């Protein structure tokens, strides 16, 4: 039986570790939060996953974020009554098969539409080129 891997656009729960927490020496995310799978990158036998945090807190001035439209919130399985954003300029990188943090038995919350995912991925690609914000948990 082949293991079902998350795919780009999936919205799942994950104990996201913010970059500021990582810099402060923390090693564990403070809580499970919704995240967007930005990219699933297979390299030989390893499947790296790049996760972007979803938050209902207004982004800080130094954060690059995309506000999530109401319809996308519903598709993503988020039932928040407040505006929400995907934070683009920091991310967690993890190894899907070896992760201590990713619960593969948990069902995804929902998924972004292909057109909105492309918008997120374009913005993500721009910040990746600058090599900012990665918390590597693999």
Radius of gyration: 14 Å
Task: Give the beta-strand count.
Answer: 8
What general outline do the C-alpha atoms trace? globular
Mean pLDDT across the residues is 90
The parts where pLDDT drops under 50 for at least 5 residues are: none
**Order of secondary-structure elements:** EHEEEHEEEHE
CATH class: Alpha Beta
Quaternary status of these chains? single chain
Q: What is the correct CATH architecture?
A: Roll
Please describe the biggest sheet, giving its number of strands, its sense, and whether it closes into a barrel: 8 strands, mixed
Instruction: Assign the structural class, choosing from mainly alpha, mainly beta, alpha/beta, alpha+beta, or little secondary structure.
Output: alpha+beta
The CATH topology assignment is Thiol Ester Dehydrase, Chain A
Q: Strand fraction band?
A: 25-35%
Helicity, as a percent range: 10-25%
Total count of helical runs of at least 4 residues = 3
From the N-terminal CA to the C-terminal CA, the straight-line distance is: 24 Å
- How many domain units? 1
Question: What key phrases describe this protein's structure?
Answer:
alpha+beta; 3 helices; eight-stranded mixed β-sheet; globular; Thiol Ester Dehydrase, Chain A; 138 residues
Helices and strands in order:
Blueprint lengths: L9 E5 L4 H5 L9 E11 L2 E10 L9 E3 L2 H6 L9 E3 L3 E5 L14 E2 L2 H16 L4 E3 L2
Parallel strand pairs: 6-8
Antiparallel strand pairs: 1-2, 1-7, 2-3, 3-5, 3-6, 4-5
Can you describe this structure?
By secondary structure, this protein is α+β, with helices and mostly antiparallel strands. The protein has a single domain (10-136), classed as Thiol Ester Dehydrase, Chain A (Roll), CATH 3.10.129. It is built from three helices and eight strands, in the order βαβββαβββαβ. Strands 1, 2, 3, 4, 5, 6, 7 and 8 form an eight-stranded mixed beta sheet that branches.
């Amino acid at each position: 039986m082949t293991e079902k891997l998350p795919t780009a656009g999936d919205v799942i729960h994950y104990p996201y570790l913010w970059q500021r927490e990582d810099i402060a020496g923390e090693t564990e995310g403070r809580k499970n939060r919704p995240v967007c799978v930005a990219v699933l990158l297979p390299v030989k036998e390893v499947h790296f996953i790049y996760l972007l945090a979803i938050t209902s807190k207004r982004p800080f001035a130094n954060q690059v974020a995309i506000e999530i439209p109401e319809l996308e919130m519903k598709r993503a399985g988020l039932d928040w009554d407040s505006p929400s954003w995907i934070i683009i300029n920091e991310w967690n990188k993890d190894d899907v098969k070896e992760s201590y943090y990713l619960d593969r038995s948990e069902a995804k919350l929902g998924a972004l539409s292909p057109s909105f995912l492309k918008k997120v991925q374009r913005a993500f690609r721009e910040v990746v080129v600058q090599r900012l914000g990665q918390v590597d948990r693999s």
